[in-house]
């Protein structure tokens, strides 16, 4: 409306002046309209024009609309040359309103010294477009306090080049809000030196969507002291290649909760040295799915302390093919409850060297099903001490052994059998014994043989009896023994 009134007022004044000139000419010419000899018209001064002022109903009175500059502000009329010529003291004297009124072109020509001269409130007054206009040199000249004054949106406006240009001390000065505002591309632009300079509260401020954006080099550069700040969720957010990039020192710093948080597909990315670097508490905290996902090489990398810390459920989760990777020292380190938790399939998969390396207490802890599942080769590998411990176990029943398994027992093991155990053997089991095993039976065991067992002996077996064994026979056994001796060989 103001503009319309202004135009109408001007047009009215123009036509009024024109009419006055025409009336004067007419009177001087005696009513003639000719103006050939008319003197100049009387001077007319139109009323002053009212300056046009645009009123934006969406901007509060006294404020400059966003994205524009105040034309009445002294800084809006500055040239780039004039601004560049200003001293640092003059720059520091600029008010926050004057700073905010600068155009992006003017911001971009500020020298690094001028940038450094800006007060923190001036930095806070910068708009996002101003921050985006800063060069890498200008960004690098920002002081720690100036960086701390930047709003989160301003930090995101720095872009990847701006973040890459920051020094380690500048990175350390970023607030948790600044860190949380970094985009995934900016996170990826962080150098190993940047991550190494970060503080605990900054690492804790990283979100689960920012963590995967870190490069493997940046991950491996994270100080060991910062590993706890990752918590469980951030550990779970790590990608497989990031897990593989963790150093042995970082791996050893993982808490039990963090170790459990590693995804099963990611735990497979751990190298053998990394597996070996896990602390025993962390290994004991692994889920059964994590244990089952370990490869044979990873299983073989476990230390004896790791194996000793395994729970029964963890041992039961080990793949049979992976059990073979455990050394004899690791097998010996298994607890009795862990050995008892082995399935028959797992037990049968153990080598004779692994069986022989078991502690006697672990052998004694075997269940009846486990004992019955042992192969003849495994029985033959049992030491005298193991067999003695096994024979005292309530789970061990020699009569439950297959003839082939019994035939696999060593002569020392056979010699350790009690007379009661020998008497409980079936005729098929007795017939399966080798001549060396027969010769290894104690005189008490020979004296305990039943008539059916003696009848089951072959001539070769009877011929293998020693004089002391024959001397131990009683009157009931003698006729049958002599009958066996008389039988043609």
Set down the secondary structure blueprint.
Layout: H1 2-28, H2 80-84, H3 88-93, H4 96-101, H5 104-108, H6 112-117, H7 120-125, H8 128-133, H9 136-140, H10 144-149, H11 152-157, H12 159-165, H13 168-173, H14 176-181, H15 184-188, H16 192-197, H17 200-205, H18 216-220, H19 231-237, H20 240-245, H21 248-252, H22 256-261, H23 264-267, H24 272-277, H25 280-285, H26 288-293, H27 296-300, H28 304-309, H29 312-316, H30 320-323, H31 328-333, H32 336-340, H33 344-348, H34 352-356, H35 360-364, H36 368-373, H37 376-381, H38 384-391, H39 403-407, H40 411-415, H41 419-423, H42 427-432, H43 435-440, H44 443-447, H45 451-456, H46 459-463, H47 467-471, H48 478-486
Structure described in brief:
By secondary structure, the chain is an all-alpha fold. Helices cover 60% and strands 0% of the residues.
Give a structural overview.
- 60% of the residues lie in helices and 0% in strands.
- It has 48 helices and no strands.
- The chain starts with a helix and ends with a helix.
In percent, how much strand structure appears in the residues? Answer: under 5%
The total beta strand count reads 0
Helix segment tally:
48
Q: Profile the largest sheet.
A: none
What share of residues is helical? 55-70%
* Integer-rounded radius of gyration: 48 Å
The first-to-last residue Cα distance is 136 Å
Shape descriptor reads rod-shaped
Q: Report the average pLDDT across residues.
A: 83
Q: Could you name the ranges where pLDDT drops below 50 across 5 or more consecutive residues?
A: 1-30, 32-73
In terms of structural class, how would the helical and strand content be classed? mainly alpha
């Amino acid at each position: 409306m103001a503009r319309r009134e202004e135009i109408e007022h001007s047009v009215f004044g123009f036509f009024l002046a024109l009419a006055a000139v025409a009336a004067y000419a007419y009177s001087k010419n005696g009513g003639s309209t000719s103006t050939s000899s008319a003197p100049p018209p009387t001077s007319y001064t139109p009323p002053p024009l009212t300056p046009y002022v645009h009123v934006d109903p969406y901007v509060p009175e006294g404020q400059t609309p966003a994205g524009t500059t105040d034309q009445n502000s002294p800084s809006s009329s500055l040239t780039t040359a004039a601004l560049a010529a200003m001293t640092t003291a003059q720059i520091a004297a600029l008010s926050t309103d004057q700073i905010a009124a600068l155009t992006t072109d003017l911001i971009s020509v500020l020298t690094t010294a001028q940038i450094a001269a800006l007060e923190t409130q001036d930095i806070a007054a910068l708009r996002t477009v101003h921050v985006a206009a800063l060069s890498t040199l200008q960004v690098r000249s920002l002081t720690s306090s100036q960086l701390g004054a930047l709003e989160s949106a301003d930090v995101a406006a720095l872009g990847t080049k701006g973040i890459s240009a920051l020094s380690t001390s500048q990175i350390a000065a970023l607030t948790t809000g600044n860190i949380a505002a970094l985009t995934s591309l900016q996170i990826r632009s962080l150098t190993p030196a940047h991550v190494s300079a970060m503080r605990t509260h900054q690492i804790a401020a990283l979100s689960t969507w920012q963590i995967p954006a870190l490069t493997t080099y940046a991950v491996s550069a994270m100080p060991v002291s910062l590993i706890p700040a990752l918590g469980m969720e951030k550990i779970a957010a790590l990608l497989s290649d990031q897990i593989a990039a963790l150093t042995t020192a970082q791996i050893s710093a993982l808490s039990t909760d963090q170790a459990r948080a590693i995804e099963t597909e990611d735990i497979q990315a751990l190298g053998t040295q990394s597996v070996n670097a896990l602390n025993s508490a962390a290994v004991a905290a692994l889920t059964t799915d994590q244990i089952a996902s370990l490869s044979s090489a990873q299983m073989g990398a476990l230390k004896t302390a790791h194996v000793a810390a395994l729970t029964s459920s963890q041992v039961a989760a080990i793949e049979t093919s992976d059990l073979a990777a455990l050394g004899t020292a690791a097998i010996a380190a298994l607890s009795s409850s862990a050995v008892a938790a082995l399935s028959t399939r797992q037990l049968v998969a153990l080598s004779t060297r692994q069986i022989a390396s078991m502690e006697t207490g672990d052998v004694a802890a075997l269940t009846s099903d486990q004992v019955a599942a042992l192969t003849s080769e495994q029985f033959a590998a049992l030491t005298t001490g193991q067999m003695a411990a096994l024979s005292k176990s309530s789970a061990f029943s020699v009569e439950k052994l297959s003839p082939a398994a019994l035939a696999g027992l060593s002569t020392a093991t056979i010699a350790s059998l009690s007379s009661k155990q020998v008497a409980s053997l079936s005729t098929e089991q007795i017939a399966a014994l080798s001549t060396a095993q027969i010769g290894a039976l104690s005189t008490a065991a020979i004296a305990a043989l039943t008539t059916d067992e003696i009848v089951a002996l072959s001539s070769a077996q009877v011929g293998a009896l020693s004089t002391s064994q024959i001397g131990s026979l009683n009157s009931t056994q003698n006729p049958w023994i002599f009958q066996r001796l008389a039988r043609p060989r």
